[in-house]
Amino acid sequence: MNDFPWTVEANQADAVSPWTKSSLNHANGNCVEVADLSNGQVGMRDSKNIAGPVLGFPSEEWRAFLGGVRNGEFNFHAI
């Protein structure tokens, strides 16, 4: 188990949709992939380590995160 209260570690086999990554991913391969999991959560994994661990997020939390991204809540600028 990890230290994040709203995540669980899931298995690769729990994915019920194809793993996808952003169309804006970088050529260096530093990205994550997401998929729907069989338990209703959204899974996230490192695209460079597809056999590695999967973090599962409740779908409500995932939607809230995406809403925050769309609203610019994570647009931090270097000082």
Short characterization:
It contains 1 helix and 4 strands.
Q: What is this structure's SSE topology?
A:
Layout: E1 8-10, E2 32-36, E3 42-46, E4 54-57, H1 59-70
Antiparallel strand pairs: 1-4, 2-3, 3-4
Describe this structure in words.
The protein is an alpha+beta fold and 79 residues long. The chain is built from 1 helix and 4 strands, in the order ββββα. Strands 1-4-3-2 form a 4-stranded antiparallel sheet. Strand 2 and strand 3 (42-46) form a beta hairpin. The model has no long low-confidence stretch (mean pLDDT 81).
Which properties best describe this structure?
1 helix; globular; 4-stranded antiparallel sheet; alpha+beta; 79 residues; 4 strands
Count of alpha and pi helical runs: 1
Helical amount: 10-25%
Low-confidence stretches: none
In angstroms, what separates the terminal alpha carbons? 35 Å
Neighbour order of strands in the largest sheet: 1-4-3-2
The assigned structural class equals alpha+beta
Main sheet? 4 strands, antiparallel
Count of beta strands: 4
Summed over residues and divided by their number, the pLDDT gives a mean of: 81
String of helices and strands:
EEEEH
Strand percentage = 15-25%
- Principal-axes shape call: globular
Q: Please, what is the oligomeric state?
A: single chain
Q: Nearest-angstrom radius of gyration?
A: 13 Å
